[in-house]
Amino acid sequence: MKPHQPQSMAMACSHYECPNIEVLESDGCGYITRYIPGGYWISSDVDYSAAELLREAYVRVHRYRYNNNDGGVRIPSTRPTISWETLDAEGNVIGATMNMWV
After folding, report:
1. Is 45 helix (H, G, I), strand (E, B) or coil?
2. CA 20 to 30 Å from 30, out of 16, 66, 76, 87?
3. Dihedral sign, CA of 6, 11, 22, 36?
4. For 35-68, what is each residue's pLDDT tens digit?
5. How far apart are the first and last CA of the chain?
6. SS3 for 101?
7. Contact at 8 Å (CB) between 40 and 71?
8. Residue 8 Cα distances to 29, 56, 71, angstroms
9. What is the DSSP letter of 42?
10. Which residues make Cβ contacts (< 8 Å) with residue 54, sequence separation at least 6?
């Protein structure tokens, strides 16, 4: 599997099915806030002891999508694939998941 390069949502959604994502007002914190409507997600915890932590979590999500699931079915490729991080009160990362919208 080749490493993936980040893409804009417009670029990614021109090739793959995407949910209707709405960009919301941000409080000037430097981040973009997006609303992604409800749906189904394939998720895997990020293992912080792994050498390539995000890559390894992505590979688990990818394998699940390709027949390695209870139904033994291939799930069509969609976007976005994003990581969610959980922060403590001081802003330190205390957990994360890799997630693919399906």
Report:
1. strand
2. 16
3. negative
4. 888 888 889 999 888 778 888 888 899 899 888 8
5. 20
6. strand
7. no
8. 20, 22, 32
9. E
10. 46, 83, 98
